[in-house]
Amino acid sequence: MLASNLKSIVSDNVLHAKWLNTLSYMENAGAKKISASEHKENVNLIILKHAAEEHRHAYYLKKQISKVDESLCKTYTNAELLSPNHTKYYLHALDIAVCRYLKEQFNLSGYDLKFAAYLFVTYAIEVRADELYPIYQAVLDEAKSKVNVKSIILEEEGHLEEMMNQLVSFSDDWENHAAEVIKIEKALFDNWVTALAAELPISA
């Protein structure tokens, strides 16, 4: 479903610009979430790297819009995003649901809960990015689009490996907990894709 939706999106300049802007918004929201999870003093290099790279992805995707139509999508207002309500709800809802799950499982609170949520939410998002961006790139290649996201694909692969390394240190049973978090993310993502499809001229 996602690939056919993306073909419809890439074939329409306005929809494509909004899609790039939507991805940029989500990367930017992710970067801000990472920064918000930081301890006031104990900030490691990986967290800084992730926040910087997610901000850069947001910037890069926003810049790609000019390859489609430089007059489009100057802001993150609802009119310039695809499925804005679901887009803005997705990451926030994921964060809340994962915090609730981790609180129940590990009895965490305060900064410990924030950091654990950062690990698991970021892991789930990197798993999703590892699936979504290559599908999008394949559609771009097929359409011979000037837009490309290859550099993001490489960095997201590196992020996923880094998150797994940190999760191993967090819990011996991290894989089972990560699987539960993935289920939470999938339900939210599927709702988002359904909302996206409803905005396309012909439902893919």
From TrEMBL:
Highest taxon of source: Bacteria
Protein name: Rubrerythrin
